[in-house]
Each structure stands twice: as structure tokens, then as C-alpha cells.
Design brief:
8 helices, single chain, 7 strands, 209 residues, Rossmann fold, alpha/beta, 7-stranded mixed β-sheet
């Protein structure tokens, strides 16, 4: 929890309580349904929560913005972002039903009224969103195919509507087809060694009918 306050010191009391509750809630659910590796559960705040919040260092979401988290797994990056932006609406989807069960239970335990969760593939999601967020579920070309028709026309943020993607390693070849991509090194925001090769990728996507 100290790690979160180190980089996000202006949290409200409610937000602090919600972030503090994450460890216990995830440990409880992980003992029933394994959504986080046993090794990583002890590094939850570093490897999952703070990693997810790197997106907030690139773009702060506005009230009533709509964010789609594709392949959310146990709720990352969606759940930490939903705590940080309580007036922003988050829809978390995953193709594996037991993971969605955990996400729904976590959101309920934390009383996150701005989170919905669905057992869906990305292609089957209805509606339009300001941004689609995700954490390395597939290559960027495949991901773009899944979400290219999910982007709102109206622009309300500093960054153009599109994808905000957590990825690691050398992305030059994977991102070469996309000339408008911006890559942000997470170690520019967070000093821990874990983030040395981690990045936030912003890929603007145009509205499509």
C-alpha cells in the first residue's frame, strides 16, 4: 500500500481503504479460483496494482468517460483504474467465465459502483468507448482487429481515443504498421526495477461506423 501512496499521494480515505482491501480480497479469491500466480500474489501491489496504474500516468480519465478492459483476467488493469477514477465507467470483459466471477466479486467487495463485468470475447462487446485498455493479451495487430469498431467518435481527453496497452520488451517490429503509436516507458514514472522494460502503448483509433 505504501507503494501506491508513494506515486499517488492524493487518494481519498475511501480510495485508500479500497486499495488496502485488495490484498485480502484477492488472497481469498485466489485460494478458490487461481487468477494470479501464487508467486505474484505476494507482489500484488507492485506487479499488478501499480503496473495497472501506469496508464493513469499517461492519461487521466474524465468523469463519465467509458473505458473497456479487454482480457481483464483477475481485473487488471480495470479494477485499480476504477478505484483511482471513481466517476469513470469501466466495463471489464474476459472470455473465461471463472475470471469474470472473481472480477465481479472483487468489485462488489470494494463497493465499486463504476464497474461492470461480462463473460464476453472482445468482438462481441456492444457499445463505444473512449479508450480500450489491456495488459498484453495478444499482439497489437490481433488486438486492433478485436476492438477497431469499439471507439467513440467524440474526443474528450488530451490523448486521442483508442488503445492504451501495457506491454513489455522490444515492440518495434510489432508496432511498425502503426505510425501514430506513442510508447511511454513506465520506468519514467516508477523507479522500481520491475518496470525497467515495461511500457504503456497509446494507439489512436478512428471512429468506424
Amino acid at each position: 500500500m505504501d507503494l501506491i501512496l508513494k506515486y499517488f499521494p492524493e487518494l481519498s480515505d475511501v480510495q485508500k481503504q479500497q486499495f488496502e482491501a485488495l490484498q485480502g480480497v484477492y488472497e481469498d479469491w485466489n485460494s478458490k479460483i487461481n487468477v494470479i500466480s501464487r508467486k505474484d500474489i505476494q507482489s500484488l501491489y507492485l506487479k499488478h496494482v501499480l503496473h495497472a496504474l501506469a496508464i493513469a500516468k499517461v492519461q487521466k480519465f474524465k468523469p463519465n468517460a467509458q473505458i473497456l478492459d479487454v482480457g481483464t483476467g483477475g481485473g487488471f488493469p480495470g479494477i485499480p483504474l476504477a478505484i483511482l477514477f471513481p466517476q469513470t465507467k469501466f466495463h471489464l470483459v474476459d472470455s473465461i467465465q471463472k475470471k469474470v466471477k472473481v472480477v465481479s466479486a472483487v468489485a462488489q467487495a470494494l463497493k465499486l459502483k463504476n464497474v461492470t463485468a461480462s463473460h464476453l470475447r472482445a468482438e462481441d462487446v456492444e457499445g463505444r468507448f473512449d479508450f480500450v485498455v489491456s495488459r498484453a493479451v495478444t499482439t497489437m495487430p490481433s488486438f486492433v482487429k478485436w476492438v477497431k469498431n469499439k471507439i467513440k467518435k467524440e474526443q474528450n481527453h488530451l490523448l486521442s481515443n483508442g488503445i492504451l496497452y501495457l506491454k513489455g520488451g522490444d515492440l518495434s517490429e510489432e508496432l511498425s504498421p502503426y505510425k501514430t503509436t506513442m510508447v511511454y516507458d513506465i520506468d519514467a514514472f516508477f523507479e522500481e526495477d520491475f518496470f525497467e522494460t515495461k511500457k504503456v502503448v497509446h494507439l489512436p483509433l478512428k471512429y468506424r461506423r
